[in-house]
């Protein structure tokens, strides 16, 4: 996707941050309202209906589909919406229309693919994200969903596979939840004011090949070169090996995340709770928590995420972003849910 010149300049200044995506730079006025989602689900309400997706030019054949694992699991999890679910995509819609991207999601970066997915299901589809290789320049691919309403607290769950051959050592940024204006999606390098935005993404650490929640918020402190606001995102958990990153023992790992492997599926879930809007960190009660294959890695509590009750979670961002040289192989996504209640793994 195109990267604004100003954002590229910011990336050159500090190699640890993503530029704002092309989607984040556009007006919110063009947002799709998502009202066509119910109609799309009606077309895929049973396992046989999804075979119609093969006729769509947006969907291409991938690996040969494995036999269906049984009647209890069907490709379209979203056909049976659960209490609390506010958005769901199993990529059985036949197109990318339910996503709110302005760059058109070209198939060379965002490809709907016939693939057995995390449950080896026949007629299943996934989304493949691959960042273009443009020399050693930053590049990325993403899906943006502007949620139908804003919330103080949300869970997001998705299944992810880093493709065989994926280079975990390449610096990257991942997927998560964003509070505030879409124009601030992908903003980096500064501590939020508390009334403008906060965000948390799950992404692999190139040094350890484990996940962490890369988080921007009012009380962030771990990599702040300038006390007046110049910061890069906090790591949750932060590891002792990162030295100055771990000034607060409560932000160190209590459960060590497992080492990631390419070519296998993981179930990941993220909780972001903005907490009570307060003017002081001493009173803060925001929470970040996340799970991998059902194993809880947090929580991290008493985080100062916001100062204003008007600042709420508004966007799900599924993202693959690289700062420079990286593998051609990217990642696969499936079974995406955003909910007001804990979702868990299928």
Shape from CA axes?
globular
Which class in CATH terms?
Answer: Mainly Beta
- The count of DSSP E runs of length 2 or more, i.e. the number of strands, is 19
The helicity comes to under 10%
Written description of the protein model:
With 346 residues, this protein is mainly β. It has a single domain (5-14, 23-339), classed as Sandwich (Jelly Rolls), CATH 2.60.120. Helices cover 5% and strands 32% of the residues. Strands 1, 2, 3, 4, 6, 14, 15, 16, 17 and 19 form a ten-stranded mixed β-sheet that branches. Strands 5, 7, 8, 9, 10, 13 and 18 form a seven-stranded antiparallel β-sheet that branches. It has a two-stranded antiparallel sheet with strand order 11-12. It is globular and about 50 Å long.
Question: In terms of topology, how is this protein built?
Answer:
Layout: H1 5-13, H2 37-43, E1 59-61, E2 85-89, E3 110-114, E4 125-129, E5 139-151, E6 153-162, E7 172-173, E8 175-180, E9 197-204, E10 211-216, E11 223-224, E12 231-232, E13 234-236, E14 265-273, E15 286-292, E16 295-296, E17 300-303, E18 313-322, E19 331-339
Parallel strand pairs: 1-3
Antiparallel strand pairs: 2-19, 3-4, 4-19, 5-18, 6-14, 6-19, 7-18, 8-9, 8-18, 9-10, 10-13, 11-12, 14-15, 15-16, 15-17
Summarize the structure.
The protein has 346 residues and is mostly beta strands.
């Amino acid at each position: 996707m195109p990267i604004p010149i100003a954002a590229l300049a910011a990336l050159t200044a500090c190699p640890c941050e993503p530029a704002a995506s092309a989607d984040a730079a556009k007006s919110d006025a063009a947002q799709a309202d998502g009202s066509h989602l119910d109609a799309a689900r009606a077309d895929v309400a049973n396992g046989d209906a999804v075979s119609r997706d093969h006729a769509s030019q947006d969907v291409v054949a991938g690996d040969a589909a494995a036999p269906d694992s049984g009647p209890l699991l069907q490709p379209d999890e979203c056909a049976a919406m659960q209490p609390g679910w506010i958005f769901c995509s199993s990529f059985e819609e036949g197109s990318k229309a339910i996503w709110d991207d302005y760059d058109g999601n070209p198939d060379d970066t965002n490809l709907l693919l016939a693939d057995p997915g995390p449950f080896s299901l026949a007629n299943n589809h996934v989304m493949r994200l691959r960042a273009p290789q443009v020399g050693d320049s930053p590049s990325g691919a993403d899906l943006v969903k502007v949620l139908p309403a804003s919330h103080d607290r949300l869970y997001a769950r998705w299944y992810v596979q880093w493709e065989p051959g994926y280079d975990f050592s390449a610096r990257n940024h991942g997927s998560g939840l964003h509070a505030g204006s879409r124009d601030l999606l992908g903003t980096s390098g500064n501590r939020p004011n508390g009334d403008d935005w906060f965000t948390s993404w799950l992404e692999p650490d190139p040094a350890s090949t484990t996940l962490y929640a890369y988080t921007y918020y009012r009380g962030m402190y771990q990599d702040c070169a300038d006390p007046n606001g110049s910061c890069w995102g906090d790591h949750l958990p932060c590891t002792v090996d990162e030295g100055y990153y771990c000034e607060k023992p409560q932000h160190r790992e209590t459960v060590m995340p497992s080492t990631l492997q390419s070519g296998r599926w993981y179930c990941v879930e993220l909780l972001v709770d903005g907490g009570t809007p307060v003017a002081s960190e001493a009173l803060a009660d925001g929470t970040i928590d996340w799970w991998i294959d059902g194993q809880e890695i947090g929580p991290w509590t008493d985080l100062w995420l916001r100062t204003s009750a008007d600042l709420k979670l508004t966007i799900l961002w599924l993202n693959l972003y690289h700062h420079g040289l990286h593998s051609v192989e990217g990642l696969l996504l499936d079974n995406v849910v955003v909910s007001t209640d804990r979702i868990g793994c299928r």
